[in-house]
């Protein structure tokens, strides 16, 4: 069993060393004590931190059309309308896709989350993961669990919330009939053990910029010996490289002289191999012109999508660049997949959202 550190809802108003918390040792014993005492007791151990649901909000995205894992930024923009705050002030953590092809997200205030991590670091905690209590419930059934004087709702329910007994009494008529009720007043130890090892898929809040960094391994002596061996290897490699460079320059000079004798009109040599290959294969080049490739892209990819073309540019070394506007990131994802299905080398980049529209750059690379 993991070593859990639960920061109860009683102390979330003031982030300080006296925060009332609860510790479960690997044997399953519950101990309630202030945070600074828990720090002394757990010194040197790796802990999994559990936060109260009152500090976070749980949301779900719409069904995602692509099979590929979307970027956290795309999911954040997808739920932006459900939020009442600016995205820049929030820390959003993403969970695993569910059976409805939706992504669950846990949202908390960024500055408060930073202050919490700073408090735990100042107390000397080595935090491996950070979850939310209502998110521990397994998602195969709907659950309502009374824990630490509050009711946690979650599991198969389309919500993760914490309610007081009075609030639950108001909401109870709207809950499904097959919901499973558990009360810590009847079997506290049993519920503790079940909840902390329920086998669900809770979201780890340590993501993105807050991802846990691995501790360096204490192999200092081995590192010094390896560094010495690498230094010797580098010295031998350097001598070999210099010899090969001299031979390469000699052979290149000979090749350049032969090339100039075959193609005297080529007064400037930038890439000898590329120029020679281009001159040899010029007669057999494909008749598929750049304009024809653009027409194909327009008819088979852009024409079948609900996007607007703002600007089209062509660069010899990069290919066609088309600036688009769409209604959502989902439309852009569908456009990219349609391009791959047609076999065209298209990529999407520089996506950003302005007002109610999404802007991006579609690149058709030179084949």
From TrEMBL:
UniProt-listed InterPro entries: ATPase_NBD, GspL_cyto_dom, GspL_pp_dom, T2SS_protein-GspL
A Pfam family matched in the record: T2SSL
Matching SUPFAM superfamilies: Actin-like ATPase domain
Domain GspL cytoplasmic actin-ATPase-like: 33-210
UniProt superkingdom: Bacteria
Keyword Thylakoid in annotation: no
UniProt entry keywords in alphabetical sequence: Cell inner membrane, Cell membrane, Membrane, Protein transport, Transmembrane, Transmembrane helix, Transport
Limits of the GspL periplasmic domain: 213-366
The keyword Cytoplasm is assigned to this record: no
GO (cellular component) term, any one: type II protein secretion system complex
Cleavable signal peptide: none
Cellular compartments annotated: Cell inner membrane
Topology in membrane: Single-pass membrane protein
Biological process, per Gene Ontology: protein secretion by the type II secretion system
Gene3D superfamilies associated with the record: 3.30.420.380, General secretion pathway protein M, EpsM
Function, in words: Inner membrane component of the type II secretion system required for the energy-dependent secretion of extracellular factors such as proteases and toxins from the periplasm.
Protein family: Belongs to the GSP L family.
Designated name of the protein: Type II secretion system protein L
